Amino acid sequence: MPCLSLSSHTDNCDDPLVSALPQTSFQSSSELSSSHSPRFAKLNRREGFGGWSPLDSDKYQWLQIDLRDRVEITAIATQGRYSSSDWVISYLLLFSDTGKGWKQYRQEGSIWAFPGNNNADGIVHQKFQHSIRTRFLRFVPLDWNHSGRIGMRVEVYGCVYKSDVADFNGRSSLLYRFNQKSMSTLKDVISLKFKSMQSDGVLVHGEGQRGDYITLELHRGKLVLHINLDDAKLRSSSSSRVSVTLGSLLDDQHWHSVLIERFNKQLNFTVDKHTQHFRTKGDYDSLDIDYELSFGGIPLPGKPGTFLRKNFHGCIENLYYNGVNIINLAKRRKPQIYTVGNVTFSCSDPQMVPVTFLSSTSSYLLLPVDSPADGLSLRFQFRTWNRDGLLLSSQLFHEPEHLLLYLSNGKLKLAHQKSLLEKTEMTTGHGLNDGLWHSVSLSTRGLQVSLTLDNNASSTMEANMQIQSGDSYFFGGCPSTMNNLGCKNPTLAFQGCMRLIFINNQPMNLIQVQQGLLGNHSDLQIDICGIRDRCLPNDCEHGGQCSQSWSTFYCDCSGTGYTGATCHNSIYEPSCETYRHTGSTSGYFSIDSDGSGPLGPTLVYCNMTDDKVWTMMHHNNMELTRVQGSSLERPYSMQFNYSTSREQLQAMVSRAEHCEQEIVYRCKRSRLLNTRDGTPFSWWVSRTSERQTYWSGSLPGVQQCSCGLNENCIDMNYFCNCDADRDEWANDTGLLSYKEHLPVNQMVIGDTSRTGSEAVYRIGPLRCYGDRNFWNAASFNMETSYLHFPTFHAELSADISFYFKTTAKSGVFLENMGIKDFIRIELSSPSAVTFSFDVGNGPIKLTVKSPTPLNDKQWHYVKAERNTKEALLQVDQLPIRFLEALPDGHFRLQLNSQLFVGGTASRQKGFLGCVRSLMLNGLTLDLEERAKMTPGVQPGCPGHCSSYGSFCHNGGKCIEKYNGFSCDCMHSAYRGPLCKKEVSLLFEAGSSLTYNFQEPLSVSSNKSSQSSAIYAEMSKSLENIAFSFLTTHTPAMLLSVTTYYLEYMAVILSKNGSLQIWYKLNREKEPDIFSTSTTNLVNGQLHKVRINRVGRDVYVQIDQNVNTKYSLTSNTEFNAIKSLTLGKVTGSPSLDEEVRVAGAQGFIGCLSSVQFNHIAPLKAALHHHRSTVVTVKGRLVESSCGSTSMADLNTFTTTHSLSDHLEKINEREPLAIQSDSVVIGGIIAVVIFVTVCVIAIMTLFLYQHRKGHRTSTEKDKEHRENLEYSLRNHTDLCDSVSESKKEYFI
């Protein structure tokens, strides 16, 4: 059998091997005439009719050459038949050591189709990527000149190959005995080649009395290496043992190469072209083996010929142990080698002919029965990856009686069908689609049918009458005329291999089938088993589990965090910034900074409540920690674990615009840097494992604290407060913001061993904001401009994603070329994006067409992916275009030129527009940095709001930024990065919130023009009101608006729970009252209300199901608006009685996101509660109406944020450690604050008193009531100093 060399081509191994061969070395499937004989198929010869041509030109023809001995082959060459129209366009190459049991030449893991000729006399050379060692070659034409016939002349190049071979019969072994009792090695190299038909057997074994061992064995067609270097007496468990499995289908009777390299604990294990690197466990580095090393089995001590495990049955070639040629020593009968059993030094090859069933629809093998007899006897072996497939179908002697044997869901089923309605079945085995050889034996005796699978016990069933064999059997499938031939198939045709077929104890000669002398067949390969393991190598990425069928493989991505055909794509966003763009709110998220790259996801907290989106990474020690008793000789040390790898941290930090980490550090008689020799007492260790001695906001490399830079340390002789070494507590707290050093990995403190010396520290979470990659963009201003980057290396898997916007009709986004291969993405038309590539099987194109133009100057998203399983193209949210990869053929994308972005090497079809966030296999290209040095390309891209303006919700305004956008929520009732976070307050009984508008000129002539402008914007002939509320109390005043001319509008809840809207636009007339027909709104549920007035028309919408139009009796404008009040209203005699009653009751419940034109009173109360614009009476608690329960309406509970929690920590230890001066300072601050309150009350009283020109009795009364409530509110403010920050008083 042949061997595929792992090494590159042997030097000077290129001699022509065919030209000198005798005529008997040439054979073929057929010949057109004696003048077209295969003996004329030598390169450049013109004898006969100038080459070989078969009788028929079809896919079953072949040309075979016997090279007379095993040789090493490095290249081949082909020609057509001399001066004719006969030549081969493409062909397969098979090789064998015996002329039987052929193996297909593979390259890149696939059956390799060699390109042939395009004329009769040109020579096409093919140099092998890896040399092969064999005796027989067979050329199989795949395609030929269709204007002529198949015609070939060939040459083979290589050299002589010599080797030492040993044949083990399954009861033999070679023992290599050491010169001393025990051999201890730190380095071992074992190399060999083997071939076998058995799936199990020990190839190498050695062990020592201490417990060391090494074993190499075949197990279920795979090689397993077991190794242990530890003392078994010291370890009762198997924790130090290592077993590594490699290879597949190694029982195929073909040569396989093995190399084991060990240095100390490090091992490299190679089988054929696949290598696995691993380390042994335990404490020891040496391998201690006693007496001997065994090859071919594990004999029991003192009992030659007996083995502990199944021994190897097959051939081993060129067996070397640490440079010693074991087989050569055995052949020369050297004393170091002891032979157990019969070992011969030539390889015997079993003569068996396999057959491959290629198609799941049309493959079949028909074999006749020479002399049908009573009963039947069948046996054969099969191997497959498919769960379903027909193995055998036969019409028995008594029609319509049938016998069916087939695979169903990996189990073997036998069905005896006596008629359409009468059938007997039995099932045996499971998981038979494992790629291993399984033997099946089927026989009858009397009425009993026996089915035997492998070496298991037989399964039997009873027939009603004796079964008599028919005159033929169909294996694997049925022909298309199955009904006429009596073949039935309840499942798919079989795809796999069969061999050793016996009918009535007679072997079937499949070579005669190939020659057309026996039976019939379709879509078969005879004398070859074409099974391949599509899960080796495993193309499922990121730990995906591979399974397979005959023609493809599947990846189970469950639990990996990745998705796609090969588990290539992360299911997580790369940053908190991108989560924000998906509409997410604050919470814990997994981020995958490198997308489809090798780094896994990381769990972080995304804080999206601020203008910036903060990414927070916590560690294992977030509490304040007190340190005492440490010195430079025995320093205190704390390691911080961020539950992620260093590489993941680096990726996250590198992607961010800014990172920071707070170090809270307080000290008493504990120095940081103050030493005589300059060696610091304390330091911290950065992400890069470097010692850092700058603190609290100082600069890297500057051994100081921030007070040293700011020149405000408590002792100017030192650069840190703690270095003053005082008995009082000092503080060197601050932020570290040099992100290349973050996060802090370790804290070391070395000066707390003296009397009264101690330190308290806390390392805060790592906090980062921004996403440098998401907004990284370049603008291409000329068609001839482009950016170039290093070659895109993505042989097996490539994914490319980016955003673009343009007004151009077409243009190339990116292109990378190889010698023949290429990859390109382009805007092929104003409404189409095309992804094209070639991996050697011809150009492939995928195009996604949009129903709307893509050159609309809006951002559009493109993602293209290509792997060994499929290719896909996605544009925005349009349907994804998929294309499956060929099951066999080229699949490595081999590129060698630079990657061009925004254009091509030819400077044609360049792209005009912007490209942003270009990511290739998880790596973001820095377009901005490259654009800075490239003519015709500008860094960045303006106009983000044109695409992302809709991300700003609820009236938020999009603000353009260089690297993105932000939302201005000033005129929105909402807040947050995207103006989506509701602003809610809980109102208790008697609470109210009043927003005071500026007085118009007609009322107060001394107001500024600016005030008038503000007022003029508010007094328009329309109102736009929106709010949400939740309550269980009625009647209630939700909202009221009053003017200086005693006009008003009010929204109240009546006693029956319905909503009423009151408009009084003329105090001389009756008000307009609109009552909605909505059911009870006082049900403890959140309701949304929108009121819009334009002239006379009032539009009211409640929740999603009530939208009503009302008409006012007048279209009078609201003039001189005085105030807007939420909740309780008193002292307003202009209100009608029912409104006054509701106003007196006020509102008890939750109000959310209140908007009156451009005014958001709740936000004003929260953010400007000390302003005179906002007046608050009673207690208001910030809440979330969406999560408020009915119980909360009666009991207000404040939920503190993380920052509140940290502040409370700061207020505990070490506040207890602070000096009394802090307490005294606090008392003084309270006294000053109370004094300010008294002055404010008196000032307001005097101001109100000077407005004595209001002579109306009603105005005097209103003035006294307002003054009374103002005084009460100021008093409440002074009394509320100790209340929670979430409660507001004025």
Automatic annotation (TrEMBL):
PROSITE patterns: EGF_3 (PS50026), FA58C_1 (PS01285), FA58C_2 (PS01286), FA58C_3 (PS50022), FIBRINOGEN_C_2 (PS51406), LAM_G_DOMAIN (PS50025)
Name of the gene encoding the protein in the UniProt record: CNTNAP5
GO CC term, one of those recorded: membrane
Keyword S-adenosyl-L-methionine set for record: no
Function: May play a role in the correct development and proper functioning of the peripheral and central nervous system and be involved in cell adhesion and intercellular communication.
One family name in Pfam for this protein: Laminin_G_2
SMART domains in the cross-refs: EGF, FA58C, LamG
Subcellular localization: Membrane
Family designation: Belongs to the neurexin family.
Matches recorded under InterPro entries: ConA-like_dom_sf (IPR013320), EGF (IPR000742), FA58C (IPR000421), Fibrinogen-like_C (IPR036056), Fibrinogen_a/b/g_C_dom (IPR002181), Galactose-bd-like_sf (IPR008979), Laminin_G (IPR001791), Neurexin-related_CASP (IPR050372)
PANTHER family with a match to the protein in the record: CONTACTIN-ASSOCIATED PROTEIN-LIKE 5 (PTHR15036:SF46), PIKACHURIN-LIKE PROTEIN (PTHR15036)
Transmembrane segments: 1222-1247
Annotated Fibrinogen C-terminal domain residues: 567-619
Membrane association type: Single-pass type I membrane protein
Residue pairs linked by disulfide bridges in the UniProt entry: C914-C941
Primary localization: membrane
Domain of life: Eukaryota
Repeat recorded as keyword: yes
Domain EGF-like: 531-568, 942-980
Annotated ranges, domain F5/8 type C: 13-159
The protein's name in its UniProt record: Contactin-associated protein-like 5 isoform X1
Segments forming domain Laminin G: 165-347, 354-529, 776-941, 1002-1185
Keywords linked to the UniProt accession: Disulfide bond, EGF-like domain, Membrane, Repeat, Signal, Transmembrane, Transmembrane helix
